[in-house]
Specification:
The protein is mostly helical. It contains 20 helices and four strands. Bound molecules: arginine.
C-alpha cells in the first residue's frame, strides 16, 4: 500500500497559488509521464519550431533561441541514449523537458513557454505522432499487400470452393479469394490517407484555449512542422481529439478485415478442411495433445481485434459530453492510442511474414469443391442459354442435385442418360460446363473469378501499389 505522504510542492512548475501539497497517490494518479514520455521527440520538434517563431517575431532574443536550441539538442541526445532522468513529480513529458532545459540553459529555458500552453503543446505532439504512425502503418499495409499479391499470383488457377453461409457455393480461384483482401486493405489505406488530412493541422498558437496576446505567426510554425495548415479555432484546437478517434476507427476496420482472414486461415488449417499449412514458426503445440499444431498467430490477431475495437469505444466515451475547451479527461487518450498503433505495427509485420510461408494443399481444396455441387449454377445457366427460363432451370437443377445426392456422387459424375431424364435440353457438351475449371473460366468479366481476370486484377493491383 502506498503511504499517504506528500510531494514537495516546490518541485511543481505551477505551485505558486497552492497552499497544500498533493499526496503521492494523487501525484501518481494525475501524472502521465510514464506513458507520454513516448512523445518526447515530437515535443522537442514542436518546441524548436515554436522557439524559432518567437525569435523571428522578436518575442525572445536570438541569444535565447540559440540557448534553447542547444539545450533541446542535448536533451534529445540524453533521451535517445536513455540517460534522461524522468520525474513523476514533474507530471508529464512537457514539464520534464522544460525543467531540464531550464537547468541546462537558465532563463532562456523559462522563456520557451511564452505564448504557449501545455494544452496546445500536447495537441501538437499527438498530431505529429499520429501523422508518423499513419505513414508507417500505410507503408506496412503496402508490404502486406505485396505479399498477398505474390501469393495470389501463384494461385490464379488453383480451384477452391467459394462459400456463402459457409456452405460450398461455386468454384473460385484461390488467387481471386486472396485478392478480395487486397481490395479491403486498399480501402484501409485510402481511409488512413484521408484521415491524415485532418490530423495534419497545427494547434500551436491556440495556447490554453483563447489564443495569445503576443504577435505570433501560426502559419510559420505550421510550415516548420510540415503541417498543411492551422486549426482554425483555438477552442477546438486544444479540445477535440476527433482525429484520434477517426484514426482508431480506421485501425479497428483494418483489424476487423484481418480478423476475417485470420478466421479463414484457422478454418483452412483445421484437419477437416486441410486446405493450407502455416509455417511452424507461427504455431504452437499442445502440452497434452501431441498431435496438435495450433494456429496461434491468426488466433491472436482475431483476439487483438477486440482490443483495438475496445480502444475505439474508450476514446469515443472519453470525448462524449466534454464541455469546451481542454479537460484533463483527454490525458486518457494516450494509452489506447499507443496500444492501437503498437498492435497494428506488430500485427502487420508478423502477418506479412506469415503469408509468405503458407503452403497450399491443392488436392483438398479441389476435392472440397467437387463434393459440394459447386457447379449446379453452371448447369442452370447452361439450360437458360438453351432457352429455358432461369427459374425453371433452377427447378430442374434442384431435382438433379437431389438425385445425385441420393446416388452419393457429384452432378458431373452422372451419365448423359441420367441427366437427360431431368431435361432433354442437356447434351454431350454439358460435361465441359460441369467441370470446376470450366465453371471458373466462364466467369470472365472484370471482377470475376476466371484466372485471366484474376491475373488482370493482380496486374492492376501491382500498378496501384507502385504509384
Ligand atoms: N498531460 C496532459 C494531456 O495529456 C497535457 C497537459 C494538459 N494541460 C494541463 N494544464 N493539465 O492531455
Amino acid at each position: 500500500m502506498e503511504k499517504n505522504t506528500f510531494v514537495d510542492n516546490n518541485e511543481k512548475t505551477w505551485s505558486g497559488r497552492f497552499n497544500e501539497p498533493v499526496s503521492h497517490l494523487v501525484a501518481r494518479y494525475t501524472a502521465s509521464v510514464s506513458f507520454d514520455k513516448r512523445l518526447a521527440e515530437y515535443d522537442i520538434q514542436g518546441s524548436r519550431a515554436h522557439a524559432q517563431m518567437l525569435a523571428t517575431q522578436g518575442i525572445i532574443s536570438q541569444a535565447d533561441l540559440a540557448a534553447i536550441e542547444q539545450g533541446l539538442n542535448q536533451i534529445q541526445e540524453e533521451i535517445r541514449h536513455g540517460n534522461f532522468v524522468w520525474h513523476q513529480e514533474l507530471e508529464d513529458v512537457h514539464l520534464n523537458i522544460e525543467k531540464r532545459l531550464t537547468a541546462l540553459v537558465g532563463d532562456a529555458g523559462k522563456r520557451l513557454h511564452t505564448a504557449r500552453s501545455r494544452n496546445d503543446q500536447i495537441a501538437t505532439d499527438v498530431r505529429l505522432y499520429v501523422r508518423d504512425s499513419i505513414d508507417e502503418i500505410i507503408r506496412l499495409i503496402k508490404a502486406m499487400q505485396t505479399a498477398l499479391i505474390d501469393f495470389a499470383a501463384q494461385h490464379t488457377e488453383t480451384v477452391m470452393p467459394g462459400f456463402t453461409h459457409l456452405q460450398v457455393a461455386q468454384p473460385v480461384s484461390f488467387g481471386h479469394h486472396l485478392m478480395a483482401y487486397f481490395e479491403m486493405l486498399k480501402r484501409d489505406i485510402e481511409r488512413l490517407a484521408d484521415c491524415r488530412k485532418r490530423v495534419n493541422k497545427s494547434p500551436l498558437g491556440a495556447a490554453a484555449l483563447a489564443g495569445t496576446s503576443y504577435s505570433i505567426d501560426r502559419a510559420m510554425v505550421a510550415q516548420k512542422l510540415d503541417f498543411d495548415g492551422i486549426c482554425e479555432n483555438s477552442l477546438d484546437a486544444v479540445s477535440d481529439r476527433d482525429f484520434i478517434i477517426e484514426f482508431n476507427a480506421c485501425a479497428a476496420l483494418f483489424m476487423t478485415h484481418l480478423s476475417r482472414l485470420s478466421e479463414e486461415l484457422i478454418l483452412w488449417m483445421s484437419p477437416s478442411y486441410n486446405f493450407i499449412v502455416l509455417a511452424d514458426r507461427f504455431c504452437t503445440g499442445s502440452s497434452i495433445m501431441p498431435q496438435k499444431k495450433n494456429p496461434d498467430v491468426p488466433e491472436l490477431v482475431r483476439g487483438k481485434t477486440g482490443r483495438v475495437n475496445g480502444h475505439l469505444v474508450a476514446l469515443l466515451t472519453l470525448m462524449k459530453a466534454q464541455p469546451l475547451a481542454y479537460n484533463k479527461d483527454n490525458q486518457e487518450d494516450k494509452e489506447p492510442l499507443f496500444d492501437t498503433v503498437d498492435t497494428l505495427i506488430d500485427t502487420l509485420r508478423i502477418y506479412t511474414d506469415m503469408l509468405a510461408g503458407i503452403q497450399v494443399n491443392h488436392e483438398s481444396m479441389r476435392n472440397a469443391a467437387l463434393h459440394g455441387y459447386a457447379t449446379a449454377t453452371d448447369l442452370a445457366d447452361y439450360l437458360t442459354k438453351k432457352g429455358l427460363p432461369f427459374r425453371d432451370a433452377h427447378e430442374v437443377v434442384a431435382k438433379t442435385v437431389q438425385f445425385a445426392e441420393q446416388k452419393g456422387c457429384d452432378v458431373s459424375k452422372l451419365d448423359l442418360s441420367e441427366l437427360q431424364k431431368f431435361s432433354q435440353l442437356i447434351d454431350e457438351d454439358i460435361f465441359t460446363v460441369l467441370t470446376l475449371e470450366g465453371s471458373m473460366k466462364s466467369r470472365n468479366h472484370p471482377g470475376g473469378t476466371a484466372p485471366s481476370q484474376v491475373s488482370a486484377a493482380i496486374k492492376q493491383a501491382r500498378k496501384w501499389l507502385s504509384q
